[in-house]
User: What shape does this take?
Amino acid sequence: MLKNIIKKFTRRFERKKFPLWLFLSFSISALILFPIFVFSLKSMTRTERKIGSSSLPSLEKISPTDYDMSDPFITKAPKLKDLIKKPIINDIDPSLGNKNASITIVEYSDFECQYCQKQEKIIKELLRAMPDKIRFIWKDYPETEESSASYRSALAARCAGKENKFWEMHDRLFEENKKNLTDIAKELKLNEKKFKSCLDNNETGALIQDNIQEANALNITGIPYIYVNDKEILGEISVEELKSMIELELKK
Assistant: This one.
């Protein structure tokens, strides 16, 4: 039967003067190329699906670490410790004294630190002795645990600062027998509702975190930590020693 079919096709092609070998070539080529075409089409569909899917990172999700950071032409985001070598001076942190003074004393401190309490008395004495020559700036460096008395005290002082009573709260927090924060707020005649909201909602926490990050960037490991302009002091320092340092700075 197969032989008859082949003969029939052969006669048909011979009548139309179409070479049989050419027909067979086309047929064989089609049989070979068709599976390749189908496979290619499926591959393209898979690729399009992959490109359109969320498996690829969007521009917003790409971080600097996704790039080859060894490439010298890619700008690296600098870290804070690479940007600063001394305290950041601004009008955000609480300060006392002459803002235009040539001597700036910056102290990183904690209301729960006994050594810091002693140092505060020394600095206050110095400010009374040399009021026009010094600007004193406070920087918070409490414990990082937000529920700690250290952090809560820092938060309370900053909340009081929203009503321009930072230094009044500061002094009460350094008292030997200090009361709880809400009682101090009442004594200072702060808006109790606003103060409680500020305290409970950590409203001034960003200011404290900025100080902590700054201290860490400067590799500060202990408190009290003091800067007299560019000079660094770790631990307690007497009024006489501070005065000597200031006199040397004024002579420059």
Summary: DSSP finds ten helices and five strands in the chain. The radius of gyration is 38 Å. The beta strands are 95-97, 103-109, 134-140, 225-228, 231-234. Residues 13-18, 41-68 have pLDDT under 50 and may be disordered.
